[in-house]
Amino acid sequence: MVLAILVLLISAFTIPVKAATTFSDVSSSYRAAKEIYYLAEGNIITGSNGSFHPNSDITRAEAVSIIGRAVGLNGTQRETRFVDVPSTSFASGYIQSAFEKGFANGYSGGYFKPGQHVTRGEMALFISKAFGYHATTTDAAINELLSRHISEGMANGDFGGKELIKRADFAVFVARAINDELRPNYKPVYLQEGTVTASSLLVRKGPSTIYGSIGSFTQNTKLNVSHTVGNWIQVTNTAKTVTGFVSKQYVTLTDVDVPEVPTTPPPTKNPLAGQTIVIDPGHGGTDPGALGSGLREKDVVLDTGLKVRNILKRMGISYYMTRETDVFIVLQDRPVLAQSHGGDTFVSIHANKFNGAANGTETYYYGAAATATNPYITKSKLLAQSIQKRLLTEWQLNDRKVKTANYYVLKYNSMPSSLAELGFIDNPTDAKKLGSSVWRERAAEAIVLGILDYYKASGYNVSSLYDKVRP
Ligand SMILES: [Zn+2]
């Protein structure tokens, strides 16, 4: 009886976080064993059927999933923006998250090529972007890895950027990027100091709660912070007795003055400085707009408009939205609001409805010169053409062309104005896209690209802005 209680007590204090993983093809003396098992401990790599296949090449889908788990991205399988990554793909969640975080882009035509094998250079770029090193070229990314001792280069001194990377080497690089204690001959540089705000803060071996704890810090403990991994930071106390990972949310961070801060180039002037884009999501409040396929036009166009706003905001372009919430605004007020908020270009967003069979995208402008209440007919037409063209490219729906109409927000406006009908809410093909957040994001990108095309054709040097439309 006494013995049984003792056993219970012991087991209560020794509940393992996770049973140790062993791969039949990675012995403890294998050259990358330490790094592979470090990642396995945090479920960042899982292998398959007890094997890791260390000498196999790694696919883009596998690589993005591993890095995604390392930095704590949302890996829930879901719809993606890529034509070759269905929601049922094991990597769909990580691929979509990685795209949204800007560290994995696709190829033209909307392809991600999930099964394509990854080169050492691509791996460097993935890691550099995912861990926030900000390199945008392969060469710069390789230098970031070398300077942090994540890579020591290949034996011949060449990184071998064009060679395919083996799964074992990929694991080594990711493990070293996460945990600087795994980097050979590396002395951490502490760019931030932290103070623990929680009454007791567990220190873990890796950047997630899956990793076991190796100690704890009490409130107000001073920390040196070496780097960030997702929502976690690798830290050491000032006595350097405990080094590990803590959740960033329980630490107040301050930057340390480091003498050799690289000089940042002066900010370049935004080529659209002085221009305000007006986004006008149609309907709202008591006016739902068109109804169909379980969707309401007012919701679809508001969300698309908010996505346009978010892109413009990120790009540093000034904007005004006639409505940012589900409220009713009379038509007559919309051009007035646009003008009173300094608008220069007006884009109204709507969805169509007819007989269920009609389908496609069309964009309007006001074109009746004889009753020119809006004097900007030529510019409005250019704006409508630019947006229509981009919407067709991004959405791939039926081309119902650029058209003229006497819509109030076009006719009585005082600036170049267009109105996009994204698709038909009562048509199954169109409604699938109207009802999808991923597709609405692409519509928003198309609208912003169309606006840029319009300004470019109007003589603005906006070429530097195109790369900023997508994160
Ligand atoms: Zn409408």
UniProtKB/TrEMBL annotation:
PROSITE patterns: SH3B, SLH. InterPro entries: MurNAc-LAA_cat (IPR002508), N-acetylmuramoyl_amidase_3 (IPR050695), SH3-like_bac-type (IPR003646), SLH_dom (IPR001119). Keywords: Cell wall biogenesis/degradation, Hydrolase, Signal. Pfam families: Amidase_3 (PF01520), SH3_3 (PF08239), SLH (PF00395). Residues 191-255 form the SH3b domain. Residues 19-77, 78-141 form the SLH domain. Residues 1-19 form the signal peptide. The keyword Signal applies. PANTHER family: N-ACETYLMURAMOYL-L-ALANINE AMIDASE, N-ACETYLMURAMOYL-L-ALANINE AMIDASE AMIC. This is N-acetylmuramoyl-L-alanine amidase.
